[in-house]
Amino acid sequence: ACSSGHPPSPPSTAPVPSTTVPTTTAPTTTAATRAAPTRATAARVPRPSARARAAGLRDVRSIVPDAVIDLRYATRHNFTHVRLYPPDARCLVHRSLAAGLARAAHRLRRAGLVLVFWDCYRPHAVQVRMFEVVADPEWVARPTRYARSHEAGRSVDVTLARARPGGRCATPLISGHCRLDMGTGFDDFTPRAHAYAHRGVGAAAERHRAILRKAMRTGGISGYRGEWWHFDGPGAAVNRPLLDAPVR
Ligand SMILES: C[C@@H](N)C(=O)N[C@H](C)C(=O)O
Ligand SMILES: [Zn+2]
Prior knowledge:
Elements (H helix, E strand, L loop, with lengths): L18 E2 L17 E2 L10 H5 L2 E3 L8 E2 L22 E3 L3 H13 L2 E7 L4 H10 L21 E8 L10 E2 L2 E3 L23 H16 L3 E3 L2 E6 L16
Parallel strand pairs: 4-6
Antiparallel strand pairs: 1-2, 2-4, 3-5, 6-7, 7-9, 7-11, 8-9, 10-11
Helix pairs in contact: 2-4
């Protein structure tokens, strides 16, 4: 469930310099619809805009340096088929998610895995547009007068990839990593996307979903039963004033 607000603000910062690693994309995507995901580096991450900082938002790369950033809503490769964010959008999360994400990423790292971020803070106007396309609160939170969940920067959409894979990828390569099989792609709004779905979800995918949930839970971040990729940080369900922060 989510919230309400203002349209995304105009750009206020220069594009974020980050390491862009060539990627092999899923066969169904094309260069025209898919921006290259970026892999966070240990290099200094530029500060988010003043408005984002005032809202308590941080660039996730300053929290999880090895995160793979694949913001689908900054491309047309998403369920709306429209680019909803500027191409240089960043993954911004509220500071209340920082410790939990760092902890989850640490646990995954020890297993040779990295977090891939599909979505983070989401401006209210984008939530409104999404709900116009899929008006089903099970899949897209209904916008209200308040900021919650993604609109408050307190929820993330994530998947897993294996770092430094040896050999070929059975699943698409992303920034030199093999994405793990999770049973469905992002925003697959079918029953197979339910976090605990069994029918039509392979044994490996079920295992991978459980690994992701467990790591996030270690960081106090709860999975949403309705979508295996959606996770809520502390206080995500609380109604808060709408944020007026740009996504870059
Ligand atoms: C749209 C999907 N990625 C998502 O985040 N859904 C939840 C329910 C939301 O909109 O908050
Ligand atoms: Zn989500």
